UniProtKB/TrEMBL annotation:
Subcellular location: Membrane
Range of residues in the leader sequence: 1-17
UniProt organism field: Crenichthys baileyi
Keywords: Disulfide bond, EGF-like domain, Glycoprotein, Membrane, Signal
UniProt xrefs under PANTHER family: STABILIN (PTHR24038), STABILIN-1 (PTHR24038:SF8)
SMART domains: EGF (SM00181)
Assigned GO CC terms: membrane
Chief location category: membrane
Protein name per Swiss-Prot or TrEMBL: EGF-like domain-containing protein
Pfam families given in the database record: EGF_3, EGF_STAB1-2
Disulfide bond entries: 129-138, 155-172, 174-183
Residue stretches making up the EGF-like domain: 107-139, 147-184, 308-347
InterPro entries tied to this protein: EGF, EGF_STAB1-2, FAS1_dom_sf, NELL2-like_EGF
Amino acid sequence: MLVFLLLLLDFCIQTSGQQQTAPPGRCDVPQRLAVHTDCSSCAVSITANCPHGFTKLDTTNCSYVVQIGGREVELEGCQHLCVENFMHPQCCPGHWGPLCLSCPSWSGKTCNFNGVCVDGDVGNGTCICDEGFSGFACQECKNPNAFGKKCDKVCDCVHGVCNKGPDGDGQCLCQPPYTGRRCDQVSRGCRGCSSFSYCKGEEKEAGCDCLPGYRRMKENRCLVSCAQRDCDVNAHCSTQASNIKCICKPDYEGDGKICIPKNPCLENNGGCPINSTVCVFKGPNKSSCECMFGMSPVGGSPEYGCQLVSACSADTCDPTAVCQTKLDGKARCLCDPGKIGDGRRCYGNLMERLIELDSRGDHRGNLTGAIALFERGCSMVLSHSGPFTAFFPLLKQPLTGVNEEVVCKNHLILGQHLYKALEGRDLNLYGGEKLRVKVNKGLKCLE
């Protein structure tokens, strides 16, 4: 089984000598994907390839289990470490979703610095407000009569409107004819104020001014008026009687002062079949269904579901292996029981391998005599025991006048070995003789 490990790199990948620039709101991160190939015989692993797009970095020791003669045997083997460097898409802090849209903000401050945005690739852009705060961008105090950066102060206006909220200072806009810090004093200068105005100033200096959101018109009347600061850019502003009303545009949701795009994927996977597709956010109230990796649409459209695409073909695996398509859409080759290998190449017992070598390839017909020798001398040993490393002589004709069993066993070494690992060593053969493998000079039998 391939073992996947994500390793975060601390360097930036560059293309054509220049650093790649991520789209606005994106802060892609360089990452490395490391893959270990299947553990197999070191002799077999030489031919094992890394997955497409990966580079072989190292070869490490491992162990694997094979069935030999009806018993399980754990053998030492080798596997490759393959790596692939790539840029992992990631939203910058304060951005969310596949499009990396900005989180709700107030006065340029994300969640008004009074909450945490559910940001990131799988976030929904919602502000989770701190204790005591509310609103889509945490721009309001939970207590409607509180003010101050911490919403820990309470307005005390008697006859007036308080400048409340996290940005408020608690100042009272007095209802005419009242004046004073708490709007609890009567002023003669404010007796003639029109509707939607407040009494500004103290005692004799007091005068009439329009409330915030109102403009002075003819005859000193104050009428409500929409301004850019009243509503979100994605909201419609309207006046109803003496009030300003902000309503988010279609495809957006919020209180009008803050409007965020509707994300259909947040409910029921956007109507996409859950088991085989993913819902991809495409913009305000827009989404599409896409097949999971390794799948193709049923009926030509992912909206109807997707099915696993077979990654197997006639030449994907060894003829004696079974090909399976994994959930990631990649092929996995499994050698038939009794055979070993990585599935791309499978090997049976030594007699089967000897016959196979004689029937095709460079040694076709050159091992016929060796087959006769080993069949008469130790066919049972080669079929049911081991593991062995065997030296097959090139014989087109069988040997005569020899003890086949002795000759056969003295061509075997217990265990699996690479020829390179045998060079310069003295070895005990399975038949009792000794063997010295000279470096670059082949084999020599010792008396």
